[in-house]
Amino acid sequence: MPAAAGPRGTPPGSEPEVRVRAASLADLDAVAALRMALLREYEGRIVFGRVHPDAASRAPELCARQLASPRDAFFLAESDGAAIGLLRCTESRTSPLLLPERFAYVSSVFVRPEFRRRGVLRALLARADSWCAERGLTEMRLHNVPGGVAADVWAALGFGVVEEVRTRTLHPR
């Protein structure tokens, strides 16, 4: 009996190996490109879809600052030497009146569409879990667009909805 096809119709065992590692300033171009791809995916959405006209030229400077920050970590997923996924963790402080005092804020999560449903996000998140453990962080938080596949994926990875973020457009007088 022939073996079942793997993800995306590839023969079993022929999936390229995915490696996750911490990104550095040497990865600036790949990090900026993946973040721009993420923004393009949310085109037209209320918060993340209103991309600044100069976003592509601003991204490298922003990413460079964040890559250099001791509070931030970017993790890159690679396959055959190409960057296919990204996840950013930021060590954040909460209000001095709340616990935990510190938590990991997860953002800039993106996996190239042709590599989805292959465990890439799970591998990125596992590396982020290790980063959190190294810092004694016991909670992760993230914002995501409501509904759709992304919400289902985050729920399957153990993230629960605990609050809502709302926006209101103000009109100058």
Question: Could you explain how this protein is built, in words?
Answer:
It is built from four helices and five strands; from the N terminus they run E-H-H-E-E-E-H-E-H. With 173 residues, it is of the alpha+beta class.
Write the layout of secondary structure elements.
Blueprint: E1 18-22, H1 28-41, H2 55-68, E2 72-79, E3 82-93, E4 102-111, H3 120-135, E5 140-142, H4 148-156
Parallel strand pairs: 4-5
Antiparallel strand pairs: 1-2, 2-3, 3-4
Under CATH, the topology is which?
Aminopeptidase
Gross geometry = globular
Helix content: 25-40%
Q: How far apart are the first and last residues' alpha carbons, in Å?
A: 73 Å
H-E string: EHHEEEHEH
Average of per-residue pLDDT values: 90
Main beta sheet: 5 strands, mixed
| Rg on CA atoms, Å | 18 Å
Per DSSP E runs of 2 or more residues, the count of β-strands stands at: 5
Beta-strand percent range: 15-25%
Q: Superfamily at the CATH H level?
A: Gcn5-related N-acetyltransferase (GNAT)
What's the short story on this structure?
It is built from four helices and five strands, in the order βααβββαβα. It has 173 residues and is an alpha+beta fold. The chain has one domain (18-156): Gcn5-related N-acetyltransferase (GNAT) (Aminopeptidase), CATH 3.40.630.
List keywords for this structure.
5-stranded mixed sheet, disordered N terminus, alpha+beta, 5 strands, 173 residues, globular, Aminopeptidase
